Amino acid sequence: MKKIFLCLALACLAAAPAMANSLITIGNPPDQGSGNSFPFGFAYNAEYQQVYGSSDFNTGPIQIMSLELFNTQYNSGATQTPAGTYTINLSTTTAGVNNISGNFSQNEGLDETQVFSGSINQAWQFGNTLHISFSQPFNYDPSKGNLLIDVVGTGITTPGGSIFYDVNSTGGYFSRVYCSGGVACGNNGTVQTGYGWVTGLDYTGVPEPGTLVMFGTGLVGLVGAIRRRIV
User: CA-CA distance, 212 to 84, in Å (whole number)?
Assistant: First the structure.
């Protein structure tokens, strides 16, 4: 009996739809010799948003698992990432790269989901990549709208100095809304169109409903065959 159930478990794993992780990087190549510290490299205790056009994603529906920022252009000599708590939300938004609002709440989509809340503090040196793994993946379908990343910093300090992450100001990939000086500004953020971090997003594909139905049908058939064998 145990052997039968073991075979069933192995068959399920073999038959399950395989979803390999992929990385999309938006905004390359970065501005040479430049960078920006808001919000993950500075004592930024406020809200920050960055919007990405759906055309940045040459994919179907995806499940976003993590965020990456890069530090390859400007060496500030920082030795640690900031301490404190960052909260990150993702949503599908109607705000666009060329028409994002300075009112943070107006940009948020109805499916806004908290994907991370915690510290990013770690040792740092020039050339490193900041990798933030999400505790809650976010399902994003580019056909439904643009992607909005919303970040709020609380109790943020910079014990190792400020870090200036790679940015792009030339391609029109994204735009941002921020609070000047990193100090809370309510819903009166400053809009900067066509500018933002070069962004890496780690993702997996979302199985098509038909694939899941086929998998479920095959699994039911497998269970039936095993039951007949037992009987």
Answer: 41
